[in-house]
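User: Sequence for Alcohol dehydrogenase below. Tokens please.
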Amino acid sequence: MKALVYHGSGNRAWEQVPKPEVTHPADAVVRVDAVTICGTDLHILKGDVPEVEPGRVLGHEAVGTIESVGPAVLGRRPGDRVLISCITACGRCEYCRGGTYGQCQGGGGWTLGHTVDGTQAEYVRVPFADTSTHLLPEAVSDAAAVMLADILPTSYEVGVLNGRVTPGDTVVVVGAGPIGLAAIQTAQLYSPSHIVAVDLAASRLDAAKQFGADIVVNAADDPLTVIAELTDDLGADTVIEAVGVPESFELCTRLVRPSGHIANIGVHGRPATLHLEELWIRDITLTTGLVDTSSTPRLLRMLAAGRLDAERYITHRYGLDEIETAYDVFSRPADTGALKVVLSR
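Assistant: Structure tokens for Alcohol dehydrogenase:
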């Protein structure tokens, strides 16, 4: 089969690799029908995630059809159409029993495209298939469903829920890429009084308006003054970091009000300065997190009921064998206008 293989920082190739097989009783082998590219994949290619070794098949988001299952798989069978979660879960360890699947100690967590071969391939082996896949309703399209593999639960859980957004709040989202846009979309479930998007790219600020931000600010201007005027000099109740660079994180610490929340979603490859000499007295809550995907069933019900528009993130569509082109387009959003790309068989 063909797969996208990581060959060290800056190097990737769509090439022939062995087709995966069931190697553990809880495994499923899934034919990949639709897959997407994540900003985390770009971080891997930049060398920001050193745990990813050369030779690894990339990708952690897909929709597919189960081809075979191990003898311990009870709730899935060949022919089932499933969403493959970006997080695998053993279902038995202390963290999984508490719903914190991202911290699974039984061999799960973020494994696909990280410590085991991932989804950007014609076939993928999914560990713990019963707890790491979701059966898809017939009415839900592959393209819409694959948006629930990562970006929507990540933004909802790590951004909105960790950020404790409540009705009437002022919410600032720093970074209006796909993760930031998903945070804007899901923050609206809690009726904040204002959602402010901050980014450097005019195209992404325009997208933020379409996704529900009522105020947009170019980061090169003066977001501190805008937020101060909006909140009577208090600052934002919740600030969500959705970029993953030191400058954006440090901006978040200046935008938040006393007793406010900073929810960091971005994947950081470089150290950021935490000014505790300024923050310690302000009762700031800072959260980080890897998504658990515990919200995926709820989001999937919303999608099936027509309460969540997931296909709106998709700006480009390709065949699976056009993945090199898709990476080039996705990695240059300022030039291409790309938000999410979907590759299908």
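The chain has a mean pLDDT of 96.
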